[in-house]
Protein backbone atom coordinates (compact mmCIF):
# COMPACT_ATOMS: atom_id res chain seq x y z
CA UNK A 1 0.00 0.00 0.00
CA UNK A 2 3.03 2.27 0.20
CA UNK A 3 2.53 3.57 -3.34
CA UNK A 4 -1.19 2.91 -3.86
CA UNK A 5 -2.44 6.36 -2.82
CA UNK A 6 0.42 8.01 -4.69
CA UNK A 7 -0.58 6.15 -7.86
CA UNK A 8 -4.24 7.05 -7.38
CA UNK A 9 -3.23 10.70 -7.27
CA UNK A 10 -1.15 10.16 -10.41
CA UNK A 11 -3.99 8.70 -12.48
CA UNK A 12 -6.61 10.77 -14.28
CA UNK A 13 -8.97 10.40 -17.23
CA UNK A 14 -6.49 10.99 -20.04
CA UNK A 15 -7.79 13.24 -22.79
CA UNK A 16 -4.95 12.81 -25.30
CA UNK A 17 -2.92 9.63 -25.71
CA UNK A 18 0.48 9.23 -27.34
CA UNK A 19 -0.40 7.01 -30.30
CA UNK A 20 3.24 6.03 -30.75
CA UNK A 21 3.42 4.26 -27.38
CA UNK A 22 2.01 0.76 -27.02
CA UNK A 23 1.32 -1.37 -23.97
CA UNK A 24 3.60 -4.40 -23.80
CA UNK A 25 2.17 -7.91 -24.06
CA UNK A 26 3.34 -8.61 -20.52
CA UNK A 27 1.57 -5.56 -19.07
CA UNK A 28 -1.58 -6.26 -21.08
CA UNK A 29 -1.60 -9.79 -19.69
CA UNK A 30 -1.39 -8.35 -16.17
CA UNK A 31 -4.29 -6.00 -16.83
CA UNK A 32 -6.40 -8.80 -18.27
CA UNK A 33 -5.71 -10.91 -15.20
CA UNK A 34 -6.70 -8.00 -12.95
CA UNK A 35 -10.01 -7.77 -14.81
CA UNK A 36 -10.50 -11.54 -14.64
CA UNK A 37 -9.93 -11.58 -10.87
CA UNK A 38 -12.38 -8.77 -10.21
CA UNK A 39 -15.16 -9.26 -7.72
CA UNK A 40 -18.75 -9.61 -8.94
CA UNK A 41 -22.06 -10.47 -7.33
CA UNK A 42 -22.18 -14.20 -6.61
CA UNK A 43 -18.91 -14.41 -8.55
CA UNK A 44 -21.04 -14.81 -11.67
CA UNK A 45 -19.25 -12.28 -13.95
CA UNK A 46 -22.23 -11.79 -16.32
CA UNK A 47 -20.27 -9.95 -18.99
CA UNK A 48 -17.62 -10.24 -21.68
CA UNK A 49 -14.56 -8.05 -22.09
CA UNK A 50 -13.73 -7.26 -25.71
CA UNK A 51 -10.31 -5.95 -26.70
CA UNK A 52 -10.62 -4.13 -30.01
CA UNK A 53 -7.24 -4.08 -31.77
CA UNK A 54 -8.47 -3.69 -35.35
CA UNK A 55 -7.88 -0.01 -36.31
CA UNK A 56 -10.71 -0.05 -38.84
CA UNK A 57 -13.18 -1.16 -36.20
CA UNK A 58 -11.91 1.48 -33.81
CA UNK A 59 -12.39 4.14 -36.49
CA UNK A 60 -15.99 2.97 -36.93
CA UNK A 61 -16.58 3.10 -33.17
CA UNK A 62 -15.22 6.64 -32.79
CA UNK A 63 -18.31 8.45 -34.15
CA UNK A 64 -20.49 6.31 -31.88
CA UNK A 65 -18.33 7.48 -28.97
CA UNK A 66 -19.02 11.16 -29.58
CA UNK A 67 -15.92 11.46 -31.78
CA UNK A 68 -13.54 11.18 -28.83
CA UNK A 69 -9.95 10.93 -30.05
CA UNK A 70 -8.91 8.46 -27.37
CA UNK A 71 -10.82 5.73 -29.20
CA UNK A 72 -8.29 5.71 -32.04
CA UNK A 73 -5.20 7.16 -30.37
CA UNK A 74 -4.93 4.94 -27.29
CA UNK A 75 -2.82 1.80 -27.33
CA UNK A 76 -5.81 -0.43 -26.58
CA UNK A 77 -9.59 -0.15 -26.61
CA UNK A 78 -11.63 -2.28 -24.24
CA UNK A 79 -15.39 -2.81 -24.37
CA UNK A 80 -17.15 -4.08 -21.25
CA UNK A 81 -20.30 -5.78 -22.53
CA UNK A 82 -22.92 -7.00 -20.07
CA UNK A 83 -24.98 -10.08 -20.82
CA UNK A 84 -28.54 -9.15 -21.64
CA UNK A 85 -29.99 -12.38 -20.24
CA UNK A 86 -29.38 -14.31 -17.03
CA UNK A 87 -30.79 -17.78 -17.61
CA UNK A 88 -30.68 -21.11 -15.83
CA UNK A 89 -27.88 -22.27 -18.11
CA UNK A 90 -25.84 -19.21 -17.09
CA UNK A 91 -25.99 -20.26 -13.46
CA UNK A 92 -25.59 -23.97 -14.22
CA UNK A 93 -22.39 -23.21 -16.13
CA UNK A 94 -21.04 -21.22 -13.19
CA UNK A 95 -21.91 -24.00 -10.75
CA UNK A 96 -20.10 -26.50 -12.98
CA UNK A 97 -17.05 -24.20 -12.96
CA UNK A 98 -17.06 -24.06 -9.16
CA UNK A 99 -17.34 -27.84 -8.99
CA UNK A 100 -14.40 -28.36 -11.33
CA UNK A 101 -12.20 -25.63 -9.87
CA UNK A 102 -12.69 -26.67 -6.24
CA UNK A 103 -13.03 -30.39 -6.95
CA UNK A 104 -16.34 -30.74 -5.16
CA UNK A 105 -19.52 -32.55 -6.28
CA UNK A 106 -22.02 -30.53 -8.29
CA UNK A 107 -24.74 -31.95 -6.05
CA UNK A 108 -23.30 -30.14 -3.04
CA UNK A 109 -23.79 -26.83 -4.85
CA UNK A 110 -27.43 -27.36 -5.77
CA UNK A 111 -28.70 -25.16 -2.96
CA UNK A 112 -26.45 -22.28 -3.96
CA UNK A 113 -27.46 -22.60 -7.59
CA UNK A 114 -31.15 -22.67 -6.71
CA UNK A 115 -30.70 -19.61 -4.51
CA UNK A 116 -29.14 -17.63 -7.36
CA UNK A 117 -31.87 -18.73 -9.73
CA UNK A 118 -34.56 -17.63 -7.27
CA UNK A 119 -33.02 -14.16 -7.07
CA UNK A 120 -32.09 -13.58 -10.71
CA UNK A 121 -34.10 -15.61 -13.21
CA UNK A 122 -37.45 -13.94 -12.62
CA UNK A 123 -36.21 -10.37 -12.46
CA UNK A 124 -37.85 -8.01 -14.98
CA UNK A 125 -35.72 -7.70 -18.12
CA UNK A 126 -34.81 -4.08 -17.37
CA UNK A 127 -33.69 -5.03 -13.86
CA UNK A 128 -31.51 -7.83 -15.26
CA UNK A 129 -29.89 -5.39 -17.65
CA UNK A 130 -29.17 -2.92 -14.86
CA UNK A 131 -27.77 -5.63 -12.59
CA UNK A 132 -25.45 -7.17 -15.18
CA UNK A 133 -24.31 -3.71 -16.27
CA UNK A 134 -23.40 -2.81 -12.68
CA UNK A 135 -21.04 -5.78 -12.55
CA UNK A 136 -18.90 -4.33 -15.33
CA UNK A 137 -18.13 -1.31 -13.15
CA UNK A 138 -16.53 -3.59 -10.58
CA UNK A 139 -14.27 -5.00 -13.29
CA UNK A 140 -13.44 -1.48 -14.47
CA UNK A 141 -12.37 -0.57 -10.94
CA UNK A 142 -9.84 -3.40 -10.90
CA UNK A 143 -8.53 -2.29 -14.29
CA UNK A 144 -8.10 1.31 -13.14
CA UNK A 145 -6.22 0.31 -10.01
CA UNK A 146 -3.96 -2.23 -11.70
CA UNK A 147 -3.15 0.17 -14.54
CA UNK A 148 -2.21 2.92 -12.10
CA UNK A 149 0.26 0.56 -10.42
CA UNK A 150 1.86 -0.01 -13.85
CA UNK A 151 1.75 3.71 -14.70
CA UNK A 152 -0.59 2.98 -17.60
CA UNK A 153 -3.29 5.52 -18.32
CA UNK A 154 -6.94 4.54 -18.57
CA UNK A 155 -9.89 6.65 -19.63
CA UNK A 156 -13.24 5.14 -18.63
CA UNK A 157 -16.06 6.27 -20.89
CA UNK A 158 -19.82 6.42 -20.66
CA UNK A 159 -19.98 8.88 -23.55
CA UNK A 160 -21.13 6.65 -26.38
CA UNK A 161 -24.28 5.34 -28.03
CA UNK A 162 -24.60 1.68 -26.94
CA UNK A 163 -26.91 0.68 -29.78
CA UNK A 164 -24.43 1.91 -32.37
CA UNK A 165 -21.44 0.20 -30.77
CA UNK A 166 -23.49 -3.00 -30.43
CA UNK A 167 -24.31 -2.89 -34.13
CA UNK A 168 -20.70 -2.26 -35.19
CA UNK A 169 -19.41 -5.19 -33.12
CA UNK A 170 -22.40 -7.50 -33.67
CA UNK A 171 -23.02 -7.75 -29.94
CA UNK A 172 -26.81 -8.05 -30.16
CA UNK A 173 -26.41 -11.43 -31.84
CA UNK A 174 -24.23 -12.56 -28.92
CA UNK A 175 -26.70 -11.47 -26.26
CA UNK A 176 -24.39 -8.65 -25.18
CA UNK A 177 -24.71 -4.90 -24.67
CA UNK A 178 -21.99 -2.27 -24.47
CA UNK A 179 -21.94 -1.08 -20.87
CA UNK A 180 -18.59 0.70 -20.61
CA UNK A 181 -15.65 1.64 -22.78
CA UNK A 182 -12.08 2.07 -21.54
CA UNK A 183 -9.11 3.33 -23.52
CA UNK A 184 -5.62 2.35 -22.34
CA UNK A 185 -2.19 3.69 -23.14
CA UNK A 186 0.18 6.49 -22.26
CA UNK A 187 -0.60 10.16 -21.85
CA UNK A 188 0.67 12.55 -24.49
CA UNK A 189 3.03 15.23 -23.23
CA UNK A 190 0.69 17.80 -24.79
CA UNK A 191 -2.28 16.66 -22.72
CA UNK A 192 -2.71 19.66 -20.41
CA UNK A 193 -5.21 17.76 -18.26
CA UNK A 194 -2.40 15.82 -16.59
CA UNK A 195 -1.27 19.00 -14.84
CA UNK A 196 -4.66 19.79 -13.30
CA UNK A 197 -5.04 19.29 -9.57
CA UNK A 198 -7.31 16.37 -8.73
CA UNK A 199 -10.70 17.60 -7.54
CA UNK A 200 -12.49 15.41 -5.01
CA UNK A 201 -14.71 15.95 -2.00
CA UNK A 202 -12.87 16.44 1.26
CA UNK A 203 -12.74 13.62 3.82
CA UNK A 204 -15.07 15.62 6.08
CA UNK A 205 -17.60 16.14 3.30
CA UNK A 206 -17.51 12.60 1.92
CA UNK A 207 -17.56 10.32 4.95
CA UNK A 208 -20.23 9.74 7.57
CA UNK A 209 -19.30 7.73 10.66
CA UNK A 210 -22.21 6.33 12.65
From TrEMBL:
Cofactor annotation: FMN
CDD domains: NfsB-like
InterPro entries: NfsB-like, Nitroreductase, Nitroreductase-like
Keyword Nuclease attached: no
Domain (Nitroreductase): residue spans on this chain: 10-186
UniProtKB keywords: Flavoprotein, FMN, NADP, Oxidoreductase
Name of one Pfam family that matches: Nitroreductase
Family per similarity comment: Belongs to the nitroreductase family.
Annotated PANTHER family: NAD(P)H NITROREDUCTASE YDGI-RELATED, NITROREDUCTASE
The protein's name in its UniProt record: NAD(P)H-dependent oxidoreductase
Species name: Flavobacterium pokkalii
Amino acid sequence: MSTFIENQNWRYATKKFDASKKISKEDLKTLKEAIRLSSSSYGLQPYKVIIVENPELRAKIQPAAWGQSQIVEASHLIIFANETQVEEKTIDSYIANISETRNIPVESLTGYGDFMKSKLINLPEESKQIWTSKQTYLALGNLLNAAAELKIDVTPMEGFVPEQVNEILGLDKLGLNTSLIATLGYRHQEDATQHYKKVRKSEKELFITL
